[in-house]
Description:
The structure holds 2 protein chains of 2 kinds. Chain A is mainly β.
Amino acid sequence: DAKTTQPNSMESNEEEPVHLPCNHSTISGTDYIHWYRQLPSQGPEYVIHGLTSNVNNRMASLAIAEDRKSSTLILHRATLRDAAVYYCILRDRDDKIIFGKGTRLHILP
Amino acid sequence: DTGVSQDPRHKITKRGQNVTFRCDPISEHNRLYWYRQTLGQGPEFLTYFQNEAQLEKSRLLSDRFSAERPKGSFSTLEIQRTEQGDSAMYLCASSPSDRANTEAFFGQGTRLTVV
Lengths: 109, 115
């Protein structure tokens, strides 16, 4: 079973920042926090991952709570192309990747 | 490198027939995953390989399902005696290692329709 909890859906206006929350209260010390997204009719694609420190890449930022029991994926300036289902996943070495239901993000023009 | 390739992209089959799907991972990726996804749901884990070794099979995978990865390169997923409930998108992913800080790369999937 998925070890994370996410809202079913969220809405945001185009060109505004989006904060997608994820709770993972049972996270272990060796679990990495990964985010993937799935655009309509496509396979999932990797977005970002982190362990303890906040992370930035060209797609997004990942803010990790100090106790690591929650995290937030930040899209700095949402576009219509960011409309997708976003999955927050915990990964440990040798672990298969287990998806939950994710958050469906709607972008309003 | 063109990424993870799955073939065919679409398959329509009659109930009771056998089907086989192929996945070509990114070159030198030693970990390979299979998932099934139905409409409105997240991908469900089916099985995964480390090189040619099958590490785990989900309880979702009945004895009608079998997966192989000969020589640790491409993989096949076979479904025997298909049922309408097998209709879904079948996704393959590969990863360069088993380390938890590596990303997985997904193919576009094979959409199976059982009529």
